[in-house]
Design goal:
The structure holds 2 protein chains of 2 kinds. By secondary structure, chain A is mainly α. Chain A has 8 helices and 2 strands. Chain A has a domain at 26-109 and 153-189. In chain B, the strands form 3 sheets. A 4-stranded mixed beta sheet of chain B has the order 1-2-4-6, covered by helices on one side. A 4-stranded mixed beta sheet of chain B has the order 7-9-10-8. By secondary structure, chain B is of the alpha/beta class. Chain B folds into 2 domains: 3-155, RNA polymerase, Rpb5, N-terminal domain (Dna-directed Rna Polymerases I, Ii, And Iii 27 Kd Polypeptide, Chain: A, domain 1, 3-Layer(aba) Sandwich); 158-227, Eukaryotic RPB6 RNA polymerase subunit (Alpha-Beta Complex), CATH 3.90.940. Classes of the chains: A mainly alpha, B alpha/beta. The interface between A and B is medium-sized, with 10 and 15 residues. Bound molecules: zinc ion (ZN). The site of zinc ion has 9 residues of chain A, from loops. Chain B: This is DNA-directed RNA polymerases I, II, and III subunit RPABC1.
Amino acid sequence: MKPKSILKKSTNSSNSSSPPVNPRDQRNLDIALHHARLIQQQKDAEAQILEALEALLELPSSPQADPAHPSEGDVVQFKSLITPFQPSDYDSLIEERHAADLCGYALCPRPPKKDKLGGKMRIVPGSSDGSPARIVPRSQLEIWCSEDCARRALYVKVQLNEEPAWTRRGGLGTDISLMVDQPEAAHTMALPIRSKKPLPEDLVQENMSQDMAALALERGEKPTSGNPFRLLSSDVAEKMSVKPPVAPGSHGKNDTSTHSAIEGYEPKTGKPPIANHKVDEDDDQDWGI
Amino acid sequence: MSEEGGREALKLWRVWRTTRQMCRDRGYEIMDNEIDVSLDEFKHHYCESNGYPDRKRMAFTLRPSDAMMAKYTDPPTPRHPEPGPPAIGTVFVEFNGDETVGIKQLRTFAHYIDEQHHYTGIFIAAGKISPSALKIIPTVLPAILEVFKEDELLVNITMHELVPKHVLLSKEEKAKLLERYRLKESQLPRIQTTDPVAKYLGLRRGQVVKIIRKSETAGRYASYRWAI
Ligand SMILES: [Zn+2]
């Protein structure tokens, strides 16, 4: 026999463990279980990422591997391991590879570049593809074996999903592409940008002329002087016939101006090569080096 | 001998001594004359001819004293009259000079602890420790990994006059305390295992420490904390 309770009878049945469960208790239980499951999912995902991170410290499989031409097996492994990563996890990976004295790009077997000179900053000379010279902290350079690997790694990073793996719906995310998958991209600093649709052509034209006008104003250029604004004005559009029209967003085979892409779209106003050159020069001055 | 090497030796001599004091205070077997080593003697044993200390040579292993083992043994109960083995064993201490300590270094260390059947491994890093590396600590249980930075051990915080004495209670003492005050352990005030003194003593979750303070008005008084 159960001891008789001296407490007042509450409206909630006190023996809630017996079968006909109070609907409110049931709902509370469901909510608690739901949250417990979410926390468990998060823990599992974090454990999986830590495991993947450790596995990525073992790549590439061969010490003779070439980061420009990784082996099929390594690529498959790399892509599947990296998919649940957020950009911050990727930063952790780079940090871990550095601690293990490996180049930050996971498909590269070389040690990071180290120079014995002191000082905090380094000047990186501009390269032939038009990227300007830059001044960067030395610690940032000593993560990679070469500038190429820095680009390869960055190329992957920008494709990573910023949403944590445990809240992603419909699978873990899109397929990650490597720089080697797109040989023409290896020569430019253009990065694949996730999920940005190109603007309609006429809207771009309009935005462009507005932007160029604003730029000319900022630079104190008169509309009459020979400046990019005038070169980009409508009469130049006649020369579109120089090249066959290319769909917005797609890369022309011989195109070298990919670095001027705006949010994944490359303005194609049919500028004659000389005008193109002029714009580049102005860009350089804009950095004020 | 370079000046820089001399400075490094002085720093590591301090860190090494604090580490050994810490092991003594936890209850491992070590004589005072094995701790109070002069700087010259330290240099003689652990420094190279260029004056720089060699961290690899500074590693050491200690056994728990009988008193320490008793403290970590479950008290016999009517249901379990034969207490199991103590929850403590040998400790291995390693000094690492890498600029950054990542997963790789800690995994190697954990592997060594496991291979040599040490109960606890204490890893003392000269450089910074990556956040991911610390995440592997719970994955290597039952081996206990503890990570310190050299800077944390430059001085012995427990010797500071404002730090009260912390004493770990045995399981038996803890049971008696709770019984005497009719408390559940969760009703005690808490101390985090990441607290500097808790870290110094290697406190584990669920253990209780007695904190003895001196007071001008009340003489000495004790309080208790439950480690979480
Ligand atoms: Zn590399």
